[in-house]
Design goal:
This protein is of the alpha/beta class. Helix content is 54%, strand content 13%. It has two domains: 167 residues, Rossmann fold (3-Layer(aba) Sandwich), CATH 3.40.50.720; 121 residues, N-(1-d-carboxylethyl)-l-norvaline Dehydrogenase, domain 2. It has 15 helices and nine strands. Helix 2 links the parallel strand 1 and strand 2. Helix 2 packs parallel to helix 7, helix 9 packs across helix 14 and helix 9 crosses helix 15. The longest helix has 30 residues. The chain binds nicotinamide-adenine-dinucleotide (NAD).
């Protein structure tokens, strides 16, 4: 990478080097950013160092002096604890620094975080992603960004995504992200039920999938997940069921807080919560099929 690209792009802290964060941070490095990463897992830090990133031994040390701090963490609570709670990651950032929260967070918590940052002269952009691990690796994520400081975030976001959408005001990215995952999760549940009803009638599940994919019932699960992760028995898409369940719960809570009665959203949230409780910790979200298969034969 030329020195000029490095100079143009600047230095960034990246906190959360998990299944998504690691390849996203690696793509920033490949694009010429000077990235210092932190994850509480030593193995994740070592993986990032192996990809050419710098690593720090705390979130605060990673963010010290940086004008941009990116988070890709499991939940809003962890983002807050890391940035403004116990870990105080923002204590030594550059004046006027920008935080980009790319986690799938709770929109209301994003607004509360923004208030705290604003009081310190710092800015926040919410920029969650869709596309899963494979698109994180390829740098072809869909990114949905909210807030007034999106322009400042754009060079970083464009290094990680194929399309960066300006979703609207602060929190808009986090809203559309959980709505997207609700629609995706409802489709996955419908696909699982169709596969089981069809199989029990005697149909071949590969044939069911081929017909759905050539017909109006196709969706992202039928096209990209059923054969690869479900019928193969691999159940290794890289997106945890608990994270999917969290996202649908955020969407359901959002609707409730707005006084909206959404029947299918409530039901989808209940089903995914029940599946998450029934399966092992760390189950992949494609194991929704295993859950539906088990409960549908209870009699
Ligand atoms: P992950 O569990 O693989 O990674 C999370 C990482 O955060 C882990 O490496 C963990 O050690 C680290 N971490 C947790 N607490 C920390 C702390 N206090 N300080 C530093 N590091 C900490 O999760 P993921 O799949 O990479 O998901 C990250 C976010 O992206 C979530 O909000 C998720 O909902 C969202 N998301 C995931 C996918 C996917 O396909 N996996 C797709 C889109 C969005």
């Amino acid at each position: 990478m030329s020195a000029q690209v490095g100079k143009l792009t600047g230095s960034v802290a990246f906190i959360g080097l998990g299944r998504m964060g690691l390849p996203m941070a690696a793509n920033l490095v490949a694009a010429g950013f000077d990235v210092t990463g932190y994850d509480r897992s030593e193995a994740a830090r070592a993986s990032f160092a192996a990809k050419g990133g710098k690593v720090a031994d705390s979130a605060r040390a990673a963010a010290a002096g940086k004008a941009i701090v990116i988070t890709m963490l499991p939940t809003s609570a962890i983002v807050a604890s890391c940035l403004i709670g116990d870990e105080q990651a923002l204590a030594d950032v550059a004046p006027g620094a920008l935080v980009i929260d790319m986690s799938s967070s709770v929109p209301g918590d994003t607004l509360k975080l923004a208030e705290v940052l604003e009081a310190r002269g710092l800015s926040l952009v919410d920029a969650p992603v869709s596309g899963g691990v494979s698109k994180a690796v390829d740098g072809t994520l869909a990114i949905m960004a909210g807030g007034d400081a999106v322009d400042r975030a754009m060079p970083c976001l464009e290094a990680m995504g194929a399309r960066v959408f300006r979703a609207g005001k602060l929190g808009a990215g986090h809203v559309i992200k959980v709505l997207n995952n609700y629609v995706s999760a409802a489709g996955a549940l419908a696909a699982a039920e169709a596969l089981i009803v069809g199989r029990d009638f005697g149909l071949d599940q590969d044939v069911i999938t081929d017909i759905l994919n050539a017909s109006t019932g196709r969706n992202n699960t039928t096209e990209n997940k059923v054969k690869r992760f479900i019928l193969s028995g691999a159940f290794n898409s890289g997106f945890d069921m608990s994270l999917m369940s969290k996202d649908i719960g955020i969407a359901a809570g959002l609707a409730r807080d707005m006084g909206l009665q959404m029947g299918l959203l409530s039901l989808t949230s209940q089903e995914w919560n029940a599946a998450t409780e029934a399966l092992d910790n760390g189950a992949d979200h494609t194991e929704i099929y295993r859950y539906v298969d088990a409960i549908s034969h209870r009699g």
